[in-house]
Specification:
Blueprint (H helix, E strand, L loop, with lengths): L9 H12 L4 H8 L3 H11 L1 E3 L38 H4 L31 E3 L2 H15 L7 H16 L4 H7 L2 H5 L3 H9 L39 H9 L9 E8 L8 E7 L4 E7 L4 H23 L2 E4 L8 H5 L9 E4 L9 H13 L10 H12 L11 H9 L1 H7 L19
Helix pairs in contact: 1-2, 1-5, 2-3, 15-16
């Protein structure tokens, strides 16, 4: 296994050079030195040595062949397109001259070490030489570890410019812009901050720079804690995969993905609970005044009472959600008030939204109607109207059918009516904020 942050040694570069000469693949070379294939590929492309083309044996190193050359006469003495005497000066005399590059150099191994035609090729040639690569690596390493890349005169001149700009209350970007930009001043904005923070300029520190303006932070009146700190036990993503694998091939239950959609930060706690049926891309959304476990439990209590046990268990065999504090009471979702199991709840890994990507992707349609940062103070009837339009939208992934049509095919129209979602005619579909405006 490749060691992280380890640099190639001269011995390893020699192995790479010899491997290329023996026409070994990058994967085989990488395995022999304990590195990744991409490491070898980048090393060869980064440190290969260029040799210019030459007019050898009557060939000119130009990408234009004699047949497609746009110039009728290059040599003004013998009036030929090219000749042995003047073709070495083709690049100087011909305005259409373009240096030839062998197509083999655009793919692995990117060099001519093992090419049998390299001694007769007039095009540019590239070779990987271990000693040259090691020397180039050492030079880059040494320069990267040097101090400030400024002469003393340059430092004093830059110091005067910076002191004058900061004294007039200018920002680093404005100082750079007023002095010819990055090219004129010789530093970028990032380097400007680096010099200030490292004390390159005498008597100037970061306290002299204009204070940055920060957005006011949201004040949490009540911090949200997990209701059950042990809720992950037996419900991790690995447990989910094991649970799904326990079913015979082709008989695994459909998965329902669950998530929260937040409103405008710092204004209110209104949010949506989204429930996404992966079998048909059908999604439900429920308005909650607070993003708490109790609000999630209230939604599932209504769903269970409305759908009744048989339809509920058919719709929600497995629920996959993230590790948010609002979902930290899985027993309230999994069990009936009498304690009987009605579903299974599992959690994705932290910062792994791709593990329930279908639900996350469908939020895109909600954001068409409720842009990010907008308030979510809407009634549940407006939420049902919004989801009716979204679920009536034909999808390419469903071969032109809408999620609502697929849902009716799988679960029946009676279940759809209980959920309060109706099919919207195609000509009446609207995915704009005006849909939920009063």
């Amino acid at each position: 296994m490749e060691k992280k942050h380890s640099h190639l040694t001269l011995d390893e570069r020699i192995v790479i050079e010899q491997g290329i000469k023996r026409k070994m693949s990058f994967s085989a070379i990488a395995a022999s030195i304990g590195k990744d294939r991409s490491t070898v590929s980048r090393e060869v492309q980064r440190n290969r040595k260029r040799y210019p083309g030459s007019a050898f044996r009557g060939r000119t190193p130009c990408k234009h062949t004699a047949e497609d050359c746009p110039v009728s006469r290059v040599c003004q003495k013998c009036f030929k397109r090219t000749c042995y005497k003047c073709e070495k000066q083709c690049g100087e005399k011909c305005k259409d001259y373009k240096r030839a590059l062998c197509p083999s150099l655009e793919k692995a191994p990117y060099v001519c070490n093992a090419c049998g035609k390299r001694n007769f090729c007039a095009s540019e040639r590239y070779f990987y030489e271990a000693k040259h690569a090691q020397e180039r690596y050492r030079n880059i390493l040494a320069s990267s570890r040097e101090g400030v890349n400024l002469t003393e005169d340059g430092r004093l001149n830059l110091e005067a410019i910076v002191a004058d700009g900061l004294g007039r209350g200018l920002s680093p970007y404005q100082i750079i812009s007023q002095n010819g930009g990055e090219e004129g001043l010789g530093i970028c904005e990032k380097t400007f901050y680096k010099y200030i923070n490292s004390g390159v300029f005498n008597g100037i520190n970061r306290l002299d720079m204009r204070a940055k303006m920060y957005k006011p932070r949201r004040k949490n009146i009540e911090r949200m804690y997990k209701k059950d700190k042990l809720c992950l036990n037996g419900r991790r993503y690995e447990d989910y995969l094991e649970h799904m694998a326990s079913f015979p091939a082709g008989s695994a239950p459909s998965v329902v993905e669950m998530d929260s959609v937040a409103g405008r930060a710092g204004t209110d706690d209104y949010c949506l609970l989204t429930i996404h049926f992966t079998s048909c891309n059908f999604q439900l959304a429920y308005v909650r005044e607070r993003n708490t476990c109790e609000s999630v439990e209230k939604v599932f209590r209504w769903l269970y009472e409305t759908l009744e046990h048989e339809d509920f268990t058919a719709l929600f065999p497995v629920i996959l959600t993230d590790n948010g504090s609002e979902f930290s009471d899985p027993n309230a979702i999994e069990l009936t008030p009498e304690g009987a199991r009605r579903t299974y709840v599992f959690y994705t890994h932290p910062n792994s939204s791709f593990e329930k990507g279908s639900c996350e992707k469908n939020h895109e349609f909600i954001r068409y109607i409720i842009p990010k940062g907008a308030e979510l103070r809407l009634s549940q009837s407006k939420a049902r109207l919004m989801m009716s339009h979204i679920n009536s939208l034909p999808r390419k992934s469903l071969n032109g059918r809408s999620p609502i049509q697929m849902f009716k095919t799988i679960y029946g129209e009676a279940v759809l009516q209980k959920l309060g979602i109706v099919e919207i005619p195609a000509k009446e579909l609207l995915l704009k904020p005006a849909l939920i405006k009063d």
